Amino acid sequence: MGPRIGPVGEEPQMSDKDTKAMMSTEDIPQGKASPNSQDLQRSVFYSIKFFVLCHSLLQLAQLMISGYLKSSISTVEKRFGLSSQTSGLLAAFNEVGNTALIVFVSYFGSRVHRPRLIGYGAVLVALAGLLMSLPHFISEPYRYDHASPVDMPQDFEASLCQSKTLVPDPTPAPSNSSCSSYTETQHLAVVGIMFTAQTLLGVGGVPIQPFGISYIDDFAHNSNSPLYLGILFAVTMMGPGMAYGLGGLMLRLYVDIDRMPEGGISLTSKDPRWVGAWWLGFLISAGAVALAAVPYFFFPREMPKEKHELRFWRKVLTVSDSPVSKGEDSPSEQSLQEPLEKQDGLVQIAPDLTVIQFIKVFPRVLLRTLRHPIFLLVVLSQVCMSSMVAGMATFLPKFLERQFSVTASYANLLIGGLTIPSAIIGIVVGGMLVKRLHLGPMRCGALCLLGALFCLLLSLPLFFMGCPTHQIAGITHEPGNLPGLEQFPACRGNCSCPLDDFNPICDPSTHVEYLTPCQAGCTSRVVQEALDKSQVFYANCSCVVGGGPVPAGSCDSACSHLVLPFMFLVSLGAALASLTHTPSFMLILRGVKKEDKTLAVGIQFMLLRVLAWMPSPVIHGSAIDTTCVYWAQSCGRRAVCRYYDHDLLRNRFVGLQFFFKTGSLACFALILAILRQQDKEERTQVTVSIPGLQQQQPLVSGPEKKPEEFRA
């Protein structure tokens, strides 16, 4: 978390030497500055408003590139033969690099040139985005039917029924003819590059948000700082939505759009073998981050503090806020100002500590903070909620693709257009309720409890919104057993079918899907040309009633019409879960000692990364893998899953979400019970208080109890 040069509400302490270095001259008394100083102040890079604009755009681009992998996770799995567990680990590695350095970067933050360090971090993020797209350029062109010979169309004759007299029987083991040490080495190199890129993506993002927040807070006018940070957060929250929108657009394009085979391809985006241009989104996002990083190399290390309050903001504060007492900030102003410290407090244990002293004192302060029951329960509830969000953000697109037979592009557009805006609305509404109603700890706890309860209730219908897996010829449906291909001697006749081929076709009359046309006994292929696309059919199929023709591609789900109601409930649940964000944050701010406040929030974010954002994608990916009923094989190893048991997939994916929501609800219930108990204890002592003073439930236990700054 980023450092703070000075506390909120005070100007940063600068020596005369630093002031001279910054302004090239000393300030002249009576508020007048030298001509050189005035010239510098006129520069756009000495304007905190311009810094807010630049930082909003940078954080928007950074979150877009960080969230883009989640929008294309299923595509990356298909392209490089990854399991969901591996892809979940890949998504989590973004947090590994971030968490490993956040404490030390915060410690050294006050000793560095913050804008320049933000620029370096942004350049590293851009380079990580370029590195993430590198596997596309070093890999061979994607061949959606890897069993086909090179000298014929990819899915033409190779998948058809060929006589055993002409083609020998395939061996039970996957063919290793195309497997070599070079192929395996290339696969490991590709996976290693992506993991390295994700780690660098996290490392580069370390200084961006905390240093930007502290820089704005230090040099903006005290009354304008909450507005600037509100604008920053509002713009930043659009980043994940833009990532899913970008994914929706890029995945409509074929993966090898830069090296299309002669004669084009016969795939459509609905084909299960379709792989979109996942790499193109990383290039676009990296370019956006690189452009946003340029201005940071021209901002000064320190700039003159903003002297004037925005007029319209002064009117807003005058209308909406009323002071509690003379000499104190209004509750709403405090509630806005105190979160400014949320990203930049780890170094404030003691600014003058050496690195060794800092490492020694940190565990003691950490344990002291974790012993506070309210803080610990709030963090646990947020861990549960963040685990739910991390799992859904990573694998919800894949779940929609499999459960409802929608394209990856459409799934991303649904999430970016419905779920992300709903979550943003929930956060905003929660903050407005806390501010307008001046909610105290008890009511904040009650609001969190209600939000978690209704979010949990909305999850119940999701268990029933889906269909079982349609019949797939030759595949057993018991997860955990090795799927085997049943033999069809009566209908397949004398066909010799490759066991590692995948070119599904669907018999519309019986809704039965075959892995390849060969498995259905098809001997011919027909292409119907249309104005904008071509449709492939297979004919003379001995396993199909009437012999066909049957269309290429998987059978559509019978529950495709449920995708919109499903997303409506998910989005509404996301809004209710986000409603708890601000009130739970205020419970932490009001629940710990003032000197531990910034550190407590820093610890909170660190624990959320370690306990939620890092393990949750791996847990969800592992659960998804247990529902697979047919794994593709690549060089003798298990690669991507071709088919899932839809009922198991739905129950385990939604069940994990339900489990984490239940944990969050239980924590909020305990928080409310503790607050009520503390309230009863406080009322027993009210007789010794000043008559007429309304007692507010304190969250801090100890000898120095005092009324809270905001009303119940």
UniProtKB/TrEMBL annotation:
InterPro entries found in the cross-reference section: Kazal_dom (IPR002350), MFS_trans_sf (IPR036259), OATP (IPR004156)
Domain Kazal-like per the UniProt entry, residue ranges: 485-545
One Pfam family in the UniProt entry: OATP
BP GO terms, sorted: monoatomic ion transport; sodium-independent organic anion transport
Subcellular location(s) of the protein: Cell membrane
The entry's keywords: Cell membrane, Disulfide bond, Ion transport, Membrane, Transmembrane, Transmembrane helix, Transport
Membrane association type: Multi-pass membrane protein
GO molecular function, one term: sodium-independent organic anion transmembrane transporter activity
Region (Disordered): 1-37
Cellular component GO terms held in the UniProt record: apical plasma membrane; basolateral plasma membrane
Transmembrane segments: 89-110, 117-138, 187-206, 227-255, 275-299, 374-396, 408-434, 446-466, 562-589, 610-633, 653-675
NCBIfam families in alphabetical order: oat
Similarity comment: family membership: Belongs to the organo anion transporter (TC 2.A.60) family.
Protein name (database record): Solute carrier organic anion transporter family member
Source species: Panthera tigris altaica (Siberian tiger)
